[in-house]
Hints:
The structure is a single chain. This protein is of the alpha/beta class and 137 residues long. It has one domain: STAS domain (Transcription Regulator spoIIAA), CATH 3.30.750. 40% of the residues lie in helices and 28% in strands. A six-stranded mixed beta sheet has the order 1-2-3-4-5-6, sandwiched between helices. The longest helix has 17 residues, at 37-53. The chain is globular. The two termini are 23 Å apart. This is SpoIIAA-like. It comes from Pontibacter indicus.
Amino acid sequence: MTKTQKLTKANGDIFLEYTRMPDNAYIYAHWIGRQYLDTVQKGGAAYLDLMREKPCPKLLNSHEELVGPWDIATDWISNEWMPLAISLGLRYMPQVLAKGVYGQMSFHQLHQRIGDMLEIKMFETEAEAREWLHSLP
């Protein structure tokens, strides 16, 4: 049975839902609303905790419901989070892009910094991202 975890901001709004899929096929992270450095760090820490429990090489990272830019977190992600995630076994990351241009621009900035660290592919929908994940070894 998969259990979805939810992280909330101080005001109670959910900013991240994440799930380890059955048979450890992949970890699914669904970001919601506007993100800030502290929400990205809390979400990133939750992912690392899952990886410490049981490594998983695949992370489906969905920004489908993300709003606005989050480029304030790109330094932290590229310099601190990504090296830790890779050391814990992350190898593949399909990225579902945000609908808005600012969220997309933030990811493209990050991708320029981390694109050679692991295999990242960008998608418009979660269905396309899952299809790619299932095609991997």
